Amino acid sequence: MSPDDLKHLVRSVPDFPAPGVLFRDITTLIAHGDGLRAAVGHLADRARSRGAESIAGMEARGFIFGAAVAIELGVGFVPVRKPGKLPVATIGIDYDLEYGTDRLEIDPTAIRPGQRIAIVDDLIATGGTALAAAALLRRAGATVADALFVIDLPDLGGAERLRAAGLAVDALMAFPGH
């Protein structure tokens, strides 16, 4: 299935999570076996072409796509978690949200110095979470140059923010609006 075919598997839900927002719901894509396989395959091809030695994914939907891409490539997966979820000593980063702050944590022993890690997530909106994940992985010693997404919402500017921070950004599909 091509990325255009996959785009038709994404459900649009109006007024979620707030009035005026058109939510792009990937659950219909991940519920479609051929669609999920194709999306993972496209992401894996892109990560492979960039020399990824490991994949990192942010909780929660980044775990779905990131772990699958890592399996497809035969490389490890680094989970980027919400606070307090890892049973070992972690390093973390606080980052700004539209209405507050959040925190991400990783196990730094899961990363070799200089290891080339690609970030994989379901969607890029404002880019805050992906920027924080890249900074955290770099602090742990990784080389992070690539961020791959299923969906880009270009009107929200996240991909441009990542590019300005030195990341190559690629998405399988884009939807206008928010």
TrEMBL record:
It holds the Pfam family Pribosyltran. It is found in: Cytoplasm. SUPFAM superfamilies: PRTase-like. The keyword tRNA processing does not apply. Pathway: Purine metabolism; AMP biosynthesis via salvage pathway; AMP from adenine: step 1/1. GO terms for biological process: adenine salvage; AMP salvage; purine ribonucleoside salvage. Its main location: cytoplasm. The keyword Transferase applies. Keywords: Cytoplasm, Glycosyltransferase, Purine salvage, Transferase. InterPro entries: Ade_phspho_trans (IPR005764), PRTase-like (IPR029057), PRTase_dom (IPR000836), UPRTase/APRTase (IPR050054). Its EC number is 2.4.2.7. Residues 54-151 form the Phosphoribosyltransferase domain. It catalyses: AMP + diphosphate = 5-phospho-alpha-D-ribose 1-diphosphate + adenine. One of its GO terms (cellular component) is cytoplasm. Gene3D superfamilies: 3.40.50.2020. It is an enzyme of class 2 (transferase). Transmembrane segments: none annotated. One of its GO terms (molecular function) is adenine binding. Catalyzes a salvage reaction resulting in the formation of AMP, that is energically less costly than de novo synthesis. Homodimer. Belongs to the purine/pyrimidine phosphoribosyltransferase family. This is Adenine phosphoribosyltransferase. It comes from Tsuneonella litorea. The gene is apt.
